[in-house]
Design brief:
The chain is of the alpha/beta class and 463 residues long. It is built from 15 helices and 20 strands. It has two domains: 227 residues, Aldehyde Dehydrogenase, Chain A, domain 1; 188 residues, 3-Layer(aba) Sandwich (Aldehyde Dehydrogenase, Chain A, domain 2), CATH 3.40.309.10.
Length: 463
């Protein structure tokens, strides 16, 4: 267990505030240099990150690059390309009543921010927000997940070798360290993790009136209409669900399948799993493991109900659960009571789309919602009649990779968003600036008011 003395944290935050107050972090060229440093260390430590991710989650090199390192490179390229544009004051309309004045929005850094990362994508999900914090001009304290211990260690080594602690610091440790950090005053807290811990973070932040971004999760539904390409749907759903052994916050959590197509879809998904992972996924280099035994045991309890269509093979010694599909699930079964966060896919059938919409809307708002349908009217209906952090139609997960789209939850699935421009905005304060002219003055606003009530009413219509 890593212990951090309270005095160390307090002294670190004083140093970071002093460093921030020098104004150095606000300089655009400085920010570009720091982003390029992160870019370089991702290359320099690439092999170490591959080994760490494999140790923590049994991730293959390909999957590690695709879902962690490659994603970060894309984010850095976006920020470097757009950083000057993001910093330009945005001129906005000024009401005619203030003739001669001009209005702008300036983005300014928040100060010292805390970024708390999860264990499922332990590199991407802590460095991606850091990139926005750097681009916006903040100092940052990072708290990686203690469950992905190897990856956390490489992150700490890499960042400490590149950046002074008064600018970017990494603090490792368990729950006690997280509690210590949450007692301190930050200018923003960015947390990625489960809803239960998210509530604790928000409650702690309230004590200091600290704004928060909460990237949480929930049970992301996947609706399958009867008008689809079954082969494509089976491949895309299986990929989205069983990537990282199902330990993805936006993985399809359960299927709502039209009854006319269910058997054909499930049959095709069984073929796809054989194609993806072979007859024994335990031997596949492309199939991961559950993060720890506690989560392994939690997932085992979700296998008791329904009919196993595929998988359900387990090996406690390896924390291995094969890709599993379960049919004939009831909404009251344990597997439907919590976010699964593992390689178990329950299936519920529906007859008309309204049933599926009602099923979703009766539950907490999910982080993602998936629809497979070629019917544009149904696509439009889902977009209008459901609420979720994001919607992806005819695929899974890919909406996360578009830097132009905000990624975040709504309701119990999260607060705030990031990726690309939105990461920069999350770690910035949008400051309103209005510049009036000194060429003339408008005396009507001063006492004693030399304008009638009717005149005021007409004037304010120009607002």
């Amino acid at each position: 267990m890593i212990l951090v003395h309270n005095s160390f944290i307090k002294e670190l935050l004083v140093k970071q505030r002093d460093y921030f107050n020098t104004g150095k972090t606000r300089d655009i060229e400085f920010k570009k240099t720091q982003l390029k440093k992160v870019q370089s260390l991702l290359v320099k430590y690439e092999t170490e990150f591959f080994k760490a991710l494999n140790t923590d989650l049994r991730k293959s090199v390909t999957e590690s690059y695709m879902t962690e390192i490659g994603f970060l490179h894309a984010e850095i390229r976006y920020l470097l390309k757009n950083i000057k544009h993001l910093h330009k004051p945005v001129k906005i309309r000024t009401p005619l009543v203030y003739m001669g004045a001009k209005s702008y929005i300036y983005n300014e850094p928040l100060g010292v921010v805390l970024i708390m990362g999860p264990w499922n994508y332990p590199l991407q999900l802590i460095i991606a927000p850091l990139l926005g914090a750097i681009a916006a001009g903040n100092c940052a304290v990072l708290k990686p997940s203690e469950l992905a211990l190897c990856t956390s260690g490489v992150i700490k080594k890499a960042l400490e070798n590149e950046f002074p602690q008064e600018y970017i610091a990494v603090i490792e440790g368990g729950i006690e360290v997280s509690q210590q950090l949450l007692q301190e005053r930050f200018d923003h807290i960015f947390f990625t993790g489960g809803t239960a811990v998210g509530k604790i973070v928000m409650q702690a932040a309230a004590g200091n009136l600290t704004p928060v971004t909460l990237e949480l999760g929930g049970k992301s539904p996947c609706i399958i209409d009867e008008d689809i390409n079954i082969e494509y749907a089976a491949r895309r759903i299986s990929w989205g669900k069983f990537l990282n052994a199902g330990q993805t916050c936006v993985a399809p959590d359960y299927l709502l399948v039209h009854r006319n197509i269910k058997q054909r879809l499930l049959g095709q998904m069984k073929k796809v799993l054989l194609e993806f992972y072979g007859s024994d996924p335990r031997q596949s280099p492309n199939y991961g493991r559950i993060i720890n035994y506690k989560h392994f045991e939690r997932l085992l309890k979700l296998l008791d109900k329904g009919n196993i269509i595929a998988g359900a093979n387990v090996d406690p010694a390896e924390r291995y659960i094969s890709p599993t599909i379960i049919d004939n699930i009831s909404p009251d079964d344990p597997v439907m009571q919590e976010e699964i966060f593992g390689p178990i896919l329950p299936v519920i059938e529906y007859e008309v789309l309204e049933e599926a919409i009602s099923f979703i809307n009766e539950r907490p708002k999910p982080l993602a919602l998936y629809l497979f349908s070629r019917d544009k009217a149904k696509q439009d209906t889902i977009c209008k009649e459901t609420s979720s952090g994001g919607i992806c139609i005819n695929d899974c997960l890919i909406h996360l990779t578009n830097q132009e789209l905000p990624f975040g939850g709504v309701g119990e699935s999260g607060i705030g968003s990031y990726h690309g421009k939105n990461t920069f905005t999350t770690f910035s304060h949008q400051k309103s600036v209005m510049k009036n002219t000194m060429l003339f003055d408008m005396p009507v606003k001063y006492p004693s008011y030399k304008i009638s009530l009717q005149g005021i009413k007409k004037l304010l219509r120009l607002m």
